[in-house]
UniProtKB/TrEMBL annotation:
It catalyses: adenosylcob(III)inamide + GTP = adenosylcob(III)inamide phosphate + GDP + H(+); adenosylcob(III)inamide phosphate + GTP + H(+) = adenosylcob(III)inamide-GDP + diphosphate; adenosylcob(III)inamide + ATP = adenosylcob(III)inamide phosphate + ADP + H(+). InterPro entries: CobU/CobP, P-loop_NTPase. Residues 1-79 are annotated as: Disordered. This is Adenosylcobinamide kinase. Pathway: Cofactor biosynthesis; adenosylcobalamin biosynthesis; adenosylcobalamin from cob(II)yrinate a,c-diamide: step 5/7; Cofactor biosynthesis; adenosylcobalamin biosynthesis; adenosylcobalamin from cob(II)yrinate a,c-diamide: step 6/7. Belongs to the CobU/CobP family.
C-alpha cells in the first residue's frame, strides 16, 4: 500500500520559503520606483500626495468652475494682484449685459466684493433709451456703485474693486462725438482717438478685475453712411485689441453663452 502523498503548502505572496530569508517585494506603484541606496535621503512627497480628493477629481473640477475663494473670477496672479479681464460680446438684445452682470454675482463672485458699474454712454433725450437704462439699473444689486463717465481709462485706473464696463459701443460713440469725427476728415481726429484707445487698453490690462461689454455690429451689410462705417470699423478694431489681452471672451447669442477664449 502506497504512502499518502504529502500536500505541498502554497507560499504566500511576498514571503520567503522556509529556510530562506527574503525581503517582501513592494506592491503597487512602489515596484516601479528605483530602490533608494543606503544613506540616501528620503524623497519628499509632493504637496498633493496626501489629498484624497484629487482621486475623485473634486479639486480639479472646483478649479475649473472657479471655486477657489474670494473673487472667484480672478485667475492670474501678477505682482501680488489677482487679475481677470472678461470681454462679453453679442448683438442687440442678445442678453450680453445680463450675462456680464451675472459674472459679478454669486456664485462667480462674493457678495462682499465692491462692484462698480461704469456707464460710458452720454445722456440722451430719448424716452426709449431712458427706459432701457432704468431697466438695467433696477436689475443691478443695490449695493453696486454706479459711475457715469466717458473717461473709462481714468475710471478703471481709480477703481479698487471689480468693474463692469457697459459698454464699449457707447464709449466709442462719446469719443467720436467729442472729436467731431462723424463729418470731419479722418486725419483730423484719428491720432487723438488712437491715443484714447491706447489709454483704455493700458487701463484694461492693469485693472485687477473688469468685465467689459461690447457689441457685434459687423455681421450685417456694410453701412450705407460714412458715420456707420466709421463706427463699425473702429468698434471692431477696439474689440479685437481688448480681446487679445482678455483672459476670457464670451459670445452671447439669443441668451446662450459661448466661451470662445478661456485662459484660466
Amino acid at each position: 500500500m502506497a504512502a499518502p502523498r504529502r500536500r505541498r503548502r502554497r507560499r504566500r505572496p511576498g514571503r520567503a520559503p522556509p529556510g530562506r530569508v527574503d525581503r517582501p517585494r513592494p506592491r503597487g506603484p512602489r515596484r516601479c520606483r528605483p530602490r533608494r541606496a543606503r544613506g540616501e535621503p528620503a524623497r519628499r512627497r509632493p504637496a498633493w500626495a496626501g489629498r484624497t480628493d484629487l482621486r475623485r477629481g473634486r479639486w480639479r473640477r472646483d478649479r475649473r468652475r472657479g471655486r477657489g475663494g474670494p473673487h472667484r473670477l480672478a485667475r492670474h496672479h501678477d505682482g501680488g494682484v489677482m487679475s481677470a479681464r472678461v470681454l462679453v460680446t453679442g448683438g442687440v438684445r442678445s442678453g450680453k449685459s445680463r450675462h456680464a452682470e451675472s459674472l459679478l454675482l454669486p456664485p462667480h463672485l462674493d457678495d462682499q466684493a465692491p462692484v462698480t458699474y461704469l456707464a460710458c454712454g452720454p445722456q440722451r433725450d430719448d424716452p426709449d433709451w431712458a427706459a432701457r437704462v432704468r431697466a438695467h439699473r433696477d436689475r443691478r444689486p443695490a449695493a453696486w456703485t454706479t459711475l457715469e463717465s466717458t473717461d473709462a481709462a481714468a475710471a478703471l485706473t481709480a477703481a479698487s474693486g471689480p468693474v463692469l464696463l457697459d459698454c464699449l459701443g457707447t464709449w466709442l460713440t462719446a469719443q467720436l462725438d467729442e472729436l467731431d469725427a462723424w463729418e470731419s476728415p479722418q486725419e483730423q481726429w484719428e491720432a487723438e482717438l488712437d491715443a484714447r484707445v491706447d489709454a483704455l487698453d493700458t487701463a484694461w490690462r492693469a485693472a485687477p478685475h473688469v468685465v467689459a461689454v461690447t457689441n457685434e455690429v459687423g455681421w450685417g451689410v456694410v453701412p450705407a453712411y460714412r458715420s456707420g462705417r466709421v463706427f463699425a470699423d473702429r468698434l471692431g478694431m477696439l474689440g479685437q485689441r481688448l480681446a487679445r489681452s482678455a483672459t476670457r471672451v464670451d459670445l452671447v447669442v439669443l441668451g446662450q453663452v459661448l466661451t470662445i477664449k478661456d485662459q484660466r
